[in-house]
Amino acid sequence: QLQEQQEEIENMMNAVFKGVFVHRYRDVVPEIRAICMEELGTWMKSYAASFLTDGYLKYIGWTLHDKQREVRLQCVKALQGLYCCRETAAHMELFTSRFKVSGGPRGSPGVPAGCHRPRSPRQTRMVSMVLDKEPDVAVEVVKLLTLMLENMEEALTEEDCQSVYPVVYVSSRALASAAGLFLYRRLLDPQREAGREPTRDGDNRTFFRLLLAFFIESELHEHAAYLVDSLWDCAGPRLRDWETISALLLEESSTEGLADRQEKALVEILAASVVQVAEGQPPVGRGPAKKVTGL
């Protein structure tokens, strides 16, 4: 009897979905489309057995291309609720691999002059939205990718990650900070290696060596202040470890010391962190999330 009642309820839910949602998720009113995506995300979290399937997920995937900011934003937030834990993220494999697009993004917030963004010929829609023309959407997309990194790491290729790293240099601080956390979790966190013994000084030395490698490879040395500011919220205590920085700079290069290029870059990072502590303000040209045409 219980099984019959469950089947009856599911049939009712399916009828409501097909009779209402399937028509309204394409409504001409953006607010209605946004509500549909918000509620679909709630259904998937609350009733995963019924709704967390590819047959329902496809509606979020399609609507990620919506022209209206609020609709795309609700799609991304709905996905955040699904990728935020491994249990639900495990059901997202087909969805993650299915929605691919070619070409570039819709537009992006301003970046410092000289910052070149690598483009993948085939990026997931979610990765391409890192450079969404609306900064608040882009911020939530980077947060979504960070959740994917934590709970479904195999979903992101190295090429995908390479598309996110340069965002630490954009002029929107909210977006840059979100990208800074992604960069730290993916590339700079000394604890990411399994079985590593945590030691404060040793970890910080590893952190600075990883940071130097990234900074030098990005070839944007004039923008050390932007990089430091992007990492400040997630790695501020490490960046303020001037004792370790000094020790690294004083080591003889003939042993395990830094090369000249690394020393120069580390001095720039040191100077930027000192300014950050002294002034407590983002670097010139970086401000709150808003539409920016460029610097």
From TrEMBL:
PROSITE patterns registered for this protein in UniProt: SCD
Keywords (A to Z) from UniProt: Nucleus
Q: Does the keyword tRNA processing apply?
A: no
What are this entry's molecular-function GO terms? chromatin binding
- According to the entry, every stretch annotated as the SCD domain falls at 21-106
Cellular compartments per GO CC: chromatin; meiotic cohesin complex; nucleus
- Record's keyword annotation contains Nucleus: yes
- Taxonomy, superkingdom: Eukaryota
What the entry lists under Pfam families is as follows: HEAT_SCC3-SA, SCD
Q: Which GO terms describe its biological process?
A: establishment of meiotic sister chromatid cohesion
Q: Which InterPro entries match?
A: ARM-type_fold, Cohesin_Scc3/SA, HEAT_SCC3-SA, SCD
Report the family membership: Belongs to the SCC3 family.
Protein name (Swiss-Prot/TrEMBL): STAG3 protein
Organism, per UniProt? Calonectris borealis
**Underlying gene:** Stag3_0
